[in-house]
Amino acid sequence: MATPKLARLRLPAADGGILAVDIRSGARPGERRPVLVICHGFKGFQRWGFFPKVAERFALGGYTAVTFNFSGSGVSGEAEAVDEPERWFRQTLTGDLADLVSVIDHFAAAGPPWIGLLGHSRGGATAVLQAARDPRIGGLVTWAAVSTFQRYSPEERERWRREGRLDVTNARTGQVLPMGLESLDDLERNAAGPLDVLGAAARIRIPWLIAHGAADESVPVAEAEALASAAQPGIARLLSVDGAGHTFGIRHPWAGTAVEFELLLRESVAFLGATLP
């Protein structure tokens, strides 16, 4: 099997800027491989911790593995912290969906035999929304996915509107990152429709692995159970990883693997492999 190579691509983003995309594949000229698009979560980015390792593993397994930075992440091409704070400030959840469509459209144009989605945390919920509405998607894996975007108290929302911003601290980098009213307006305008994660879960018609750490300190495992309960019978498999937190034992920068992560990765590779045509 050919050693995966890393290529970099730039695509149009929802905010009018550029999406930084990394592609890992060992495909030979003219070879059409299944494509796996990997979605990072809130305060994440495509080169955080385990994402390069995940992409490498799937590329070694015969996929074209695609990672990218959502435009609202505020992280440009090769950066590993927010270096475009104005994009973070303007982020929206519907913008994340539009970014994901831009990436899928690009790779779908080449006619791959299969396209799958893998998403972590908020990126998992975004993957659920897209898989529910996109017939091109053949398999779905979510890791520690949120079951709702309604994560702010009435008091937080009131202060957000009064001050015109909500400050978010990134514990990984120490940055204090303000989110503007565009984010709140988008959430409130679309919460009952395009951004209804549980409603989308009920419309999934493809094989879906819902993986969650049993000791997740950020997103309760009850949210994975809610997603599984919302799915149609026979669609979703729920995998609870004993002892695992929100990032399954992995830190940033990468400092080595963990038993919980290796289990998660093996299960995900086997699950998606079984969905291939």
How would you portray this structure in words?
Helix 3 packs across helix 4 (122-133). The chain has nine helices and ten strands. The longest helix is centred in the C-terminal third of the chain and has 17 residues, at 259-275. The chain is α/β, with parallel strands linked by helices and 277 residues long. The protein has one domain: 3-Layer(aba) Sandwich (Rossmann fold). An eight-stranded mixed β-sheet has the order 1-2-4-3-5-6-9-10, with helices on both faces. It has a two-stranded antiparallel ribbon with strand order 7-8.
From the N-terminal CA to the C-terminal CA, the straight-line distance is 20 Å
Low-confidence region ranges:
none
Largest beta-sheet details: 8 strands, mixed
The assigned CATH architecture is 3-Layer(aba) Sandwich
N-to-C SSE string, H for helix and E for strand: EEEHEHHEHEHEEHHEHEH
CATH topology: Rossmann fold
| Separate helix tally | 9
For the record, the count of structural domains works out to: 1
Q: In short, what is this structure?
A:
Helix content is 34%, strand content 22%. The chain has 277 residues and is an alpha/beta fold.
